[in-house]
Design a protein that fits this description.
The protein is α+β, with helices and mostly antiparallel strands. Helix content is about 50%, strand content about 10%. The protein is built from 19 helices and eleven strands. The chain has helices spanning about 10-15, 30-35, 85-90, 110-120, 135-145, 155-165, 175-185, 190-200, 200-205, 210, 230-240, 245-255, 275-290, 290-310, 315-325, 335-350, 360-370, 375-380, 385-410; strands at about 1-5, 25, 40, 50, 55-60, 60-65, 75-80, 100, 105, 120, 150. Helix 11 runs antiparallel to helix 12 (about 245-255). The chain is elongated.
């Protein structure tokens, strides 16, 4: 019986990154031997055990055979005779198919260390094509390691495209697509996730609302990058720089979906794309079973990101107060801040505009604070009751915002 550290822990150790969790493979043991040693069985599809002291996962070395479609269509086999190399060959990428023994010696049968040095995301074997989740994982690792210059190998990209063309990717269940997407949104370069998916053709299958943005022109005056898809990736990149929150990044990603529905004869203008975008955000979130916190913020940003750009230059005080009320800015200031971050990313996600000042965020906060200063108790003390309290509150907020706007626009 021999135990080896495997997978991400080995990869991150070699990259000099913090190891968040450790996974182990046990060669030459039976499930009963593990139980006798005090390990607690938790695996459903194949034998996985928790260490009695550390709680870390120990899996018996196994092989797998394709028996159906999708990532669940596998039959697993464990046996004391399964070797470490047989276990490693079933893994997705060479950089994840390395192991270390108890002395710290590296076992690297598929040249993962060289691929780490070359910054290459390369599949281990042709068996890669059997699991469509691996397309998402490759894209997610591209998002994680983009800062180190990692790229997907041509051979792996070609294999991923074959999986898309054969329809294997269509067997991905919504829950797994969203799980990998939400993880990718938390990576340092989340835009790379979607760029890799687009490069192999999977974006059109999994995120058609985003895929159709590429090639759609916008007015050069506001968007020097022209292409809406390019703008969307730039906005997501800026959102990642502004906030670690995946909810903010998701809202930035889907803020302009409506532009993909603009009739060609209207290009490059996109009148009314905000309302169209809300419908598409709802559609995408329902299909992928996106959590409500993500969906609700994304809807707000899709509907009101144009108001952000015009808040201190064009909008009336009445429209500003109505927008603040719709955003629930008075009761949920933290959500309002998330809205501002996503909208700032939209302003900065334009060619040559990345470092331009974005005063609208501070202006919006100032206008919110002016409206917030109105006390409901003062309104009650003035004799207003019932529905009239809300109407008077709105009127006084509008007057307060008018005064603040005069000061801003001086």
């Amino acid at each position: 019986m021999k135990t080896y550290l495997v997978g991400g822990a080995v990869r991150d150790t070699l990259l000099g990154l913090p190891v968040k969790e450790k996974d182990w493979v046990v060669v030459g043991a039976t499930p009963q031997q593990m139980i006798d040693l005090g390990y607690r069985p938790v695996g459903k599809d194949f034998p996985v055990f928790l260490h009695p002291e550390t709680g870390e996962e120990y899996a018996l070395a196994r092989t797998e055979r394709k028996s159906g479609h999708g990532y669940r269509g596998f039959t697993f086999h464990t046996d004391p005779g399964v070797t470490l190399e047989q276990d490693l060959v079933r893994r997705d990428l060479t950089i994840n198919a390395m192991a270390m023994d108890s002395d710290g010696a590296l076992i690297d049968p598929f040249d993962g260390r060289e691929d780490l040095d070359q910054g290459l995301l390369r599949h281990v074997s042709p068996a890669f094509r059997e699991d469509p989740v691996r397309i998402l994982r490759v894209a997610r690792f591209a998002a994680r390691f983009a800062r180190f210059g990692f790229r997907v190998s041509h051979g792996t990209n070609a294999l991923m495209r074959q999986m898309v063309d054969s329809g294997e990717v269509d067997y991905l269940v919504p829950e797994r697509v969203w799980k990998e997407t939400s993880r990718a949104l938390s990576e340092p370069s989340p835009e790379r996730f979607f760029e890799v998916l687009r490069g192999c053709g999977a974006l059109e299958r999994l995120f058609p609302e985003i895929a159709c943005l590429f090639g759609v022109p916008q007015p050069h005056r506001f968007h020097p990058e022209i292409d809406t898809g390019v703008h969307t990736m730039m906005v997501l990149q800026q959102a990642a720089r502004l906030s670690p929150l995946p909810e903010v990044r998701f809202a930035a990603l889907v803020h302009d979906l409506g532009k993909g529905q603009t009739p060609h004869e209207m290009w490059p203008r996109h009148h009314g794309h905000e309302a169209l975008g809300v419908e598409l955000v709802v559609q995408l979130c329902k299909r992928l079973k996106v959590p409500n916190a993500y969906r609700d913020l994304a809807i707000q940003v899709a509907r009101y990101h144009g108001h952000f750009r015009r808040v201190s230059s064009e909008l009336t005080a009445s429209t500003i107060v109505s927008t603040l009320e719709a955003l629930d800015a008075f009761r949920r200031p933290e959500r309002f801040e998330q809205y501002l971050l996503a909208c700032e990313a939209d302003m900065r996600g334009r060619a040559g505009k990345e470092k331009d000042p974005v005063p609208q965020a501070d202006h919006f906060r100032r206008l919110r604070d002016a409206a917030s200063a109105i006390s409901v108790q003062h309104i009650r003390d003035a004799g207003f009751e019932g529905k009239a309290i809300g109407e008077e509150m709105h009127r006084r907020r509008v007057n307060a915002v008018k005064q603040a706007l005069r000061e801003i626009r001086v």
